[in-house]
Every structure is written in C-alpha cells, then in structure tokens.
Amino acid sequence: MTINKVGVIGSGLMGSGIAEQSARCGFDVVVREINPEAVEAGQKRIFGSMTRGLERGKMTQEAHDEAVARLSFTTEVEALADCDIIIEAATENMALKKEIFADLDRLAKADAILATNTSSLSIAEIAAATSRPDKVLGIHFFNPVPVMPLIEYVRGLLTSDETMAAARQFGADLGKQTVESQDRPGFIVNRLLIPYALDAIRILEEGVATRDDIDLGIKLGLAHPMGPLTLSDFVGLDTLLFIADAMYDEFKDPRYAAPPLLRRMVTAGYHGRKTGKGFYDYS
Ligand code: CAA
Fold it and tell me: CB of 21 closer than 6 A to ligand 1?
C-alpha cells in the first residue's frame, strides 16, 4: 500500500516531532489534539522548530513553506478518516490508548495502518482494542525526532508482514534507519537504556559519585552526547519512571525497579527539562 497522508494523535514532544518530520519529508499530515489550547501549543512547537531549521540553513524557504502547507490541525478525530497511516503519540496510558485505537478502528480506512509510538506498552493489548490487529504495530521514534536517525518497529503477535513492509518503507521515506523488535516492554533501546539510567540514579543516591561526575564520566569515557542524568532529564523523569514501572511489572526483575529518589522526584514535580527542574535546574 502507498502512504501519502499521515495522521498524528498528540502534539507533545514526540507527536510534534513526528508531524514535523513527516511534513518535511513530503507527506500530508493531520495532527489531532484534544482541545484548541493543545492545538495551539503543538503548532507553536512544530512551527518554532521549523523556523529554527530555516534560520540555521537546514531548509530553504521554499521547503519550509511547502512543509508548513502540508500540515493541518484538528480537534476532531474524524478528520483522520482518510489517512493512510495514523500514529498515536498520546500519553502513556493503556486505557486512553485503547479508547483511541477503538475510535481509529471505527473511522479509519479499511487498509489504514494504525501505529503507536509507545515506548513500553504491549502492542498486542493495544491491537486487541481494534478489529484489525494485523494492521497495528509499534513505531517508536526517538527525541528529537528530526535529529535522531532511528525508528524501532515493534511487531505485535498478529501484525502482518504487509503492515511491517509498508511501515518500513514509510520509515525509509522519513530518512530513518530501522530496527525491529518483538513486543516486549522496552523493545531494544529502552530495554538497555532504562536499567542504565536507573543505575546512574542509584549510584547518585548511594553517594558513589556526584551528579556532574557521573555525567562527565559517561560523556567523556564513553563518548555519549549526554550523560545519563542529563539524558534522564531530557527524556522526562515521569516518562522514565513510567517505562521502568511497566518493565518491572512485566519482568519482576530488580534491574528495572525504580530507585526511591526517582519516584520522589517525580512525586515532587521534578520531571526534568519540561518542568524546569530535574537532576539539573533549567529555570
Ligand atoms: N529539532 C530539530 N533539530 C534539532 C533539535 C530539534 N528539536 N534539537 C537539536 N537539533 C539539531 C540542531 O539544529 C543541531 O544541528 P547542526 O549541528 O546541524 O547545527 C544539532 O541537532 C545539534 O544540536 P545542538 O547544537 O543544539 O545541541 P547538541 O549538539 O547538544 O545536540 C542533541 C543536542 C541532538 C539533543 C544531542 O545532545 C543528543 O543527541 N542527545 C541524546 C539524545 C537521545 O539520546 N535521544 C533519545 C532519548 S530516548 C527516547 O527518545 C526514547 C524513549 O522512549 C525514552
């Protein structure tokens, strides 16, 4: 099947990046948010990022204007009815995702692909909310989407080969390289990232090393662009905790058990960069 029109549900950090990259790569994009305020915030994020791209010489004025013209925004889920692929990037909440997928199943074209950008929830469970589990898969992007060259594809038990092939072609058209994982919490990248980030928090909590030395050690010792505590702030401490809890729930392995410091920081509203405070102060 050919993908021309992309629907994106949610225009937070990930949804806006997915919408931006899709529009920049020539797809018509409809972004659905829950209310006009959220639409406005999403537009600000997407258009702001594209303006920065233009100012930094990453895009010509013509390419910028064409990408802007390919984007439309809505609060009506029905506006996604003629999309060839719909990517859900809403909050990591299974009940909400099931509701969204049941809606999409009702209104999307019969051959439309329904994808979730979840980083840890079960594709099989999300697919079970639809009557077309063969058309459902995980398409997991990385933040910032326009910069990170990877997409992780997650195959549910019932995802068809045709769906996987069409989604892979879509990823290539977005200029990304792809890897494939079976439907297990954390897939490939987070399965390795989460215990690493949790261990960084544990050694901070135990007083083994300071925040700055942990981050500098990894940045310089392993040539990572960010140390694990900076990266945790970047991902969002609430998101990190959510993924850790989902992985612990499934595997019951202490490697995925959140350290008390992380849980308390999240409870206190320290969610990292997006709230201005995490392991670092961004205010
Ligand atoms: N949109 C578009 N371009 C962006 C951007 C954005 N949001 N943010 C940065 N860039 C571009 C900049 O324009 C710049 O491009 P040039 O070098 O061509 O000028 C380039 O990226 C580097 O940006 P900066 O110079 O501003 O800053 P930096 O060198 O510190 O890089 C970074 C920033 C790209 C975020 C880098 O620090 C990095 O790669 N960090 C690691 C990010 C990472 O690991 N992401 C994955 C998180 S895990 C996840 O997302 C999945 C999950 O489920 C948890």
Answer: no
Task: List, for residues 5-60, the tens digit of each pLDDT value.
Answer: 999 999 999 999 999 999 999 999 999 999 999 999 999 999 999 999 999 999 99
In CATH, the number for domain 5-182 is: 3.40.50.720
- Cis-peptide, bond into residue 225, ω within 30° of zero: no
Ligand 1 neighbourhood includes 235 CB (under 6 angstroms): yes
Nearest-CA residue for atom 38 of ligand 1 = 225
User: 175: how many CB neighbours lie within 10 A of its CB?
Assistant: 11
Strands 71-74 and 136-141, by their bridges, are: unpaired
Q: What is the pTM of this model?
A: 0.95
The CA-based dihedral angle spanning residues 61, 65, 66, 71, taken in that order and rounded to the nearest 10 degrees: 140
The architecture in CATH of the region 190-274 reads Orthogonal Bundle (1.10)
Q: Find the length of the chain.
A: 283
